[in-house]
Amino acid sequence: MSKVIACIDGSQVAMDVCDAAAWASLKMRAPLDLLHVLDKDEYPKADKQSDLSGNIGLGSREHLLEELTELDARRSKLALEHGKLMLEDARQRVEADGAEAVTTHQRHGSLLETLQEAQQDMRLLVMGRQGEAHDNQAHSLGSHLENVVRAMDKPIMVVVPGFKAPSRFMFAYDGSKTAQKALDKLAQSPLLKGLECHLVMVADEDDKHLSDLNSAEDRLKAAGYQVKATLKQGDVQPVLSAYQQQQGIDLLVMGAYGHSRIRQFLVGSNTAKMVRLSDVSMLLLR
Amino acid sequence: MFQNWRNDWFSNVRGDLLAGTVVALALIPEAIAFSIIAGVDPKVGLYASFCIAVIIAFTGGRPGMISAATGAMALLMVTLVKEHGLEYLLAATLLTGVLQIGAGYFKLGDLMRFVSRSVVTGFVNALAILIFMAQLPELTNVTWHVYAMTAAGLGIIYLFPLLPRIGKVIPSPLVTIILMTLVAMALQLDIRTVGDMGELPDTLPIFLWPDVPLNFETLAIIFPYSIGLAVVGLLESMMTATIIDDLTDTGSDKNRECKGQGIANIGAGLFGGMAGCAMIGQSVINVKSGGRGRLSTFVAGLFLIVMVVFLDDWIKQIPMAALVAVMIMVSIGTFSWDSLRDMKKHPLSTNVVMVSTVVVVVATHNLAIGVFVGVLLASLFFANKVGHFLIIKSEANEQETERSYRIVGQVFFASSDKFTAAFDFKEALDKVTIDLSQAHFWDITSVTALDKVVIKFRREGTEVELIGMNEASATIVDRFGVHDKPEEVEKILAGH
Fold it and tell me: What is the ipTM metric for this complex?
């Protein structure tokens, strides 16, 4: 059975992630799995007394192995304990939110690998925009987010602090292949049914764009959404942000990373900009 | 990809810089000592250590591992240098690199799985003994001063780290070398110094093509040496990589390491250095000092050449006795002392493999031959053990006119005699049934043995029926289990 998987860590946004995941699991009637990944590279580095004596004596190699194993064991045990507590907190939070069929689990390894393995029975991934390491930087992107989004082919909900159950969402549409796929997904998904839909396209006002917009609007209407379609001009990110504030949008939906990393490096990526600067949570559709 | 790259290089900058420096200080005496073992000027080993460390930092498959000029390789080139000179050594170094790159592309790194743990231990112990033995010429026919200085050096190396505070901050081998040099200079002792051993570098290495005729004769001279160097270099590098993997609980790319070693050796050969490989002792020192990333290896190489070029007047004054003390430390640290203690616990066959590897290496001064013998012995012991997994049961019918044999287990070259001997040809029977459905025939020897059994029975006038021959012989196919899915293998092995 495919599940909603929520990535839990010790960051401030974790509780918002719980809320969002509980909301999504209720809407989609899917079981919820709270996941905490123990990534060795992310633990606080142990304060090993640095030994620069540069000599090796009787059984140095064996002693060193023992010493390093001991250090790692202590670190891992702490992290394991800590993770269990976090998962327990998260479980209480989602159960208070009304979610049913909640499971929790911990895995060793890197976040990306773990999620790739879990992808098969994943329906929606919920994660915070930034983890513990970036807690105090308002608009920075967590180190994992882009890698994860690019590696997944499942929808991903990126949660920012202050999540509340959304009542109207904005779908950023540009007529591209990625957006078209996102549109299909949106039409089929039960997640956002019943919410007010704002279909926004940022492009020059010409016949092609208007017809694109109209067909998208029809598609969504046919799927049972209440749609308000708009065509706006200007730079993508500021226009969308302004619209979001004016209309009191509380969830942003878009296709993500339609272009390669090389293109992104050269001309920049709208997805990256939106994800970094958005004030509301986002649903990224691959 | 970019993230990996950054992680390999810059995830541990402070630790890598400090550890790289410590390793560079320890590399200088070793590089000089190994050049002397090989019979070339110290600069050949120092240039090699610089080139190999810097290149392998980029091309290697095991971040945090230190490669440079090594004793294992130096021992293999002694006769080449003696008979043909330095230029042929450089050419052999280039060829070694090419062979190692080839090994990387043919994924020979995977062959390491055939080298058992006891062979690895034997290799390491043999290496330690060879390094120690290479110091003996410096300790024979010398005045008492040399013995006193070596003993004092060892004392400083092992006691200095016990001092509070500074003990763990200043590398004790460095303290030994500085103090011994000062003492020798102050007392104006007439003992051998590094300067007596040959030329030291005074510039950065320069590019030069080895001055040898490019013909078949040259190839015939260098090829045997290059093969040995390539094999030993890869063996020691793979073993060291495994040790570092264990110590740091991270993985490494063995085939990339093979190619990396090859490129590094080509680089060394083109800049006037001798062939080298990964160093067990130095890599352990690196990890112990906090080095983890590629930066540590890079810093070690770079710092080494900078110090050597600027301090060459001082390095000349280092007494050989101080170097000998450092090298004795290296050999003590490389030796696996636990293996001696474990000999009581381990089975005899394991100990025989380990000890034979050591004995063969010490006798031939060639680690490749030792490993070959070790692997061969280990395989034979294994074949012998698995050969015991063969049970043959039989029962006759009531009139004792028919008998059925049931074979369970592994039939191959080592157990086919046992297989043949289990049949009683003297018994007068009308019919014999041989049930093979729970046996596995691994090679042609076993099939031949079965044929013999059938023929013998028929000659006695007994009719023979075989059951389950097809299933039993499914394992003979050479590519058995290579492409089949695990379920399929399981089906065949689980008694059809």
Answer: 0.74
Amino acid found at A243: Y
Quote the domain boundaries for residue A90.
3-42+78-158
Question: Nearest CB to B161: which of A55, A59, A64?
Answer: A55
Q: Are residues B56 and B156 in the same domain?
A: yes
What is the Cα–Cα distance from B265 to B277, expressed in whole angstroms?
8
- B289 and A52 in contact by Cβ < 8 A? yes
Residues with Cβ < 8 Å from B475, sequence gap 6 or more?
A: B440, B441, B442, B492, B493
The answer to whether B168 contacts chain A (CB < 8 Å) is: yes
Q: Do B333 and A51 touch (CB under 8 A)?
A: no
Residue B436 host element (H or E) = strand B431-441
Q: How many CA atoms lie within 13 A of A220 on its CB side?
A: 28
For residues A254 and A171, the answer to whether their CB atoms sit within 8 Å is yes
Residue B496 pLDDT > 50: no
Output the pLDDT for position B349.
92
Q: Specify whether A256 is located in the same domain as A181.
A: yes
E strands, B67-204, are: 67-69
Query: Are A12 and A107 in the same domain?
Result: yes
Mean pLDDT computed over B434-441 = 88
Is residue A211 located within the same domain as residue A257? yes
CA-to-CA distance for B366 and B343, rounded, in angstroms?
Answer: 24
**Facing B281 at nearest CB: one of A56, A72, A147:** A56
What's the order of all strands across the beta sheet hosting B390-396? B390-396, B402-411, B431-441, B463-467
Amino acid in the structure at residue A91? R
A13 and A125 inside one domain: yes
Predicted confidence at residue A259, as pLDDT, reads: 66
Best of A45, A61, A145, A264 to disrupt the B interface (most B CBs within 10 Å) is: A61
In a domain, A61, yes or no: no
* Residue of chain A nearest B161, judged by CA positions: A53
Distance CA(B76)–CA(B72), nearest Å, equals 7
Is the same domain home to B306 and B394? no
Is B75 at the interface with chain A, CB within 8 A?
A: no
Among the listed residues A97, B83, A205, B31, the one whose alpha carbon sits nearest the alpha carbon of residue B92 = B83
Phi and psi at residue B466, in whole multiples of 5°? -105, 135
Q: Which residue of B has its CA nearest to A61?
A: B284
Q: Which domain holds residue B422?
A: 388-493
> Which of B240, B288, B326, B340 is best to mutate for the A interface (most A CBs within 10 A)?
B288
Question: Is B288 in contact with A49 (Cβ distance < 8 A)?
Answer: no
CB contact under 8 A, A56 and B288: yes
The label of the residue with tokens 């592994």 reads B410
Report the domain count for chain B: 2
Q: Do B332 and A62 touch (CB under 8 A)?
A: no
B322 found inside a domain: yes
The dihedral over CA atoms of B196, B199, B204, B209, expressed in degrees to the nearest 10, equals -150
Q: Is B249 close to A40, i.e. CB distance below 8 A?
A: yes
- List, for residues A191-220, the tens digit of each pLDDT value: 888 888 898 888 888 888 888 888 888 888
